[in-house]
Amino acid sequence: MADPRPRPLLALRGIGKSFLGVRVLADVDLDLGPGEVHAVVGENGAGKSTLMKIVSGGYPPDEGSVVFNNERRAFRGPRDAQRAGIGIIHQEFNLLPERTVAENVYLGHEPLRRGLVDRREMLDRTSQLLASVGAAALPADARVGRLGVAQQQIVEIAKALALDARLLIMDEPTAALADHEVALLYGLVRRLQQRGIGLLYVSHRLTEVFDLADRITVLKDGRRVTTVPTADTTPDELVRHMVGRELSSYYPDRAAPDDLGPVRLTVRDGGNRKLHGVRLELRAGEVLGVGGLQGSGRSALARALFGVAPFSTGHVTLDGRPVRLRSPRAALRAGIAYVTEDRKGEGIVARQSVLDNALLASRSMGRAWSRRAARSVRIRNLLAAVDVRAAGYDQEIRFLSGGNQQKVVLARWLALNPRIVLFDEPTRGIDVGAKSAIHALVRRLARAGAAVLMISSDLPELLGMSDRILVMREGRIAGELPAGATEEDVVALAVGTARETVA
Amino acid sequence: MSAQSLLPARWPVPGVFVALVLTVAIGGLVVAVDGGQLFHQATVVSLLHVAAGLGLVAVGQTLVIVGGSLDLSVAYLISLSTLVAAETMNGSDGAVLPAVGLALTVSAGVGLLNGLLVTRFRINAFIATLGVGLLLKGYLDNGYDGPAGVTAPTLVRTLGYQRIGPVPLSFLLLVAVTAAAWFTLARTRFGHHLVAVGGDPEVARLSGVRNDRVLVTAHVLCSLCAGLAGIYLASRLGAGAPRVGTEGLYDLESIAAVVLGGTALAGGRGGVAGTVGGVLLLASIDAIFNQLEVDAFFKQVIRGAVIIAAVAVYARRALRRGRS
């Protein structure tokens, strides 16, 4: 790639990375000049985070070279990269809430005087740093836990600057900010630019990218699709670059019109801390897909319906009758099952047997005196029916593959004959073969009359499985798409370039 | 961005001192009504002696707890330290220095072991230090049926019993150790790093702190404090006592004092000043109930209630803080 700038601050060439044989980055090139803002965009799982971790020393690349300040570097860790002058501002802040701003900024390299920490000096230097990024009003001796999110972000940036960062990586910096705080961040980015600091800016929000970036690199499936100067492109063109691939696997047939039963669940004006004005209808026999970016409120919706973080406003009806889903137990009683996104953390009890895991919900919801033997026979039949491959049902579940673990989780809920099943990323981390088995099971559930709500970041899966698709953005339903919609349609709604369609 | 969040942090006076003043005031009143006198010289002296022993242990305990660790071996280490000191002295004034040196060296060794188990072998601090404590217990049970060794008379006279007005020398030692620990936490890199490791080990690591080294050091300092408490108890008792640490419940009492003082059990927040407040509170409650000649079991019940109440207050405060 011809580079218009004489001396890039950072030059990546042919970066590749695989995890456990899965290729997440291949042959990525990227240049960043001093004072430049270079945005990196792409779908969930396009490889943005991995690329940023490679630049900031989190992972070593398997292939390719990182040249920083005209020197080829192989960072041994994040600290090594920091010393070289590369700072990263994560979505989750790396700050100690119980300590002051100055103590956080200088943690690990506190200024000393005669062997002791020189607090005066530490406070002064911190104040200067804060003033230099236009945040002179922020007191250096304030406890970080008392600060707002935007202020904490400034502290993070000051912390990076205290280490003389020449390159700053900002990973979704506005994800946690309120609208008026975003304007502050814009000003901050400009000041950093003026100081000659190069910025790698990762964001889902195209508005921001177009406001701030000088150049934009689009990643898709771990490869660089294109790098364009911001002035030469449009949001629509970017969205086209971000998606557009062929369907690579087969999906079970969708529901025929007469498969659809009555409306089972409705939500009107549902809201809580993460959701606003949610309105949806779910029919028996259908698979309703829910798309959107990470943090758009998809999981919050499932968690609200399952009573984990219930709706605080609005009305929910089940089979026409109003219900209050205040706890998972209440949701289970109402016939709702939830297959969580975080299988290891919330889905399985790793050290218990396959059978114990499958029986978990039946045991907690069943009558205490129900016949255990009959229950056990029933669950064994179910496990066989969903085709769980295990050495025996007494085997600890952690030794099973991800796909088989997920089948056990499915069997657990099937045992309760749920009327509504919520799936959150049902095939994440599951190999291709087991994926289609899970897809078939999901469809079978719907055929049997259950109403299925399926959240997925995997666009081909979302499009291939769903009878209808809701797309979420910033805690709201951004729009509804019929079967046969394209990936562009989903992404356009998710990033907010499309006009809202009526749901 | 609220106006309030722009105010500089004010570090509130730990509530334990308020509780202490209230306890002493109310206790003094109740004792007076009962016909006794809480502020009698003998009572105050004995209170300060109790506080000195527990305080030395608790200040050390504060350091490991602030770092996110814990030390359950202190009670056994105290007993061991009394024995090492008293047996080495064997009644000779000339042997005071080597005896103190040896007791502290042994203590530092135990702390090093604790620290390495917690950091290098990644054993949960609760289990690791309990295990080391049981190791020491085995040694003590096996080798000793009762008191052994004789503490040098000079040490008994000075550290054991000497006082300036109503203030025992040992309490002044506690004040000095507390000041040193406070200074360490507030003004040294080690102190800053220790609080950071306790607050969030990952943040500390990414900021260039060598977590393991910091925690091992904290464990060594904690054990040194326990060793010092042992030397003091040996001076008090005139001999080495193989059960003095466990019978005094120094492990759990020291943790209780730390928690009463406002230090978060999970680490990252707190300090030694509060701990000393906690120690004085526990010692005052003791003194008050002794004056009232309350049943020993009832006394334990009250202490338990005080500790639970204190932790509940802190938990509510932390909850509010988390929300703001």
Automatic annotation (TrEMBL), chain A:
Pfam families to which the protein is assigned, alphabetical: ABC_tran (PF00005)
Domain of life from the UniProt record: Bacteria
Membrane-protein topology: Peripheral membrane protein
GO cellular component: plasma membrane
CDD domains membership: ABC_Carb_Monos_I, ABC_Carb_Monos_II
Keywords, ordered alphabetically: ATP-binding, Cell membrane, Membrane, Nucleotide-binding, Repeat, Translocase, Transport
GO molecular function annotation: ATP binding; ATP hydrolysis activity
Cell location: Cell membrane
Record-annotated ABC transporter domain positions: 10-246, 260-499
SUPFAM superfamilies: P-loop containing nucleoside triphosphate hydrolases (SSF52540)
Full protein name: Ribose transport system ATP-binding protein
UniProtKB/TrEMBL annotation, chain B:
Location(s), subcellular: Cell membrane
InterPro entries linked to this entry: ABC_transp_permease
GO cellular component: plasma membrane
UniProt topology in membrane: Multi-pass membrane protein
Keywords: Cell membrane, Membrane, Transmembrane, Transmembrane helix
Source organism superkingdom: Bacteria
Molecular functions (GO terms): transmembrane transporter activity
Ranges annotated as spanning the membrane: 12-32, 38-57, 96-116, 160-185, 214-234, 297-315
Matches recorded under Pfam families: BPD_transp_2 (PF02653)
Protein name as catalogued: Ribose transport system permease protein
Source organism of the structure: Micromonospora pattaloongensis
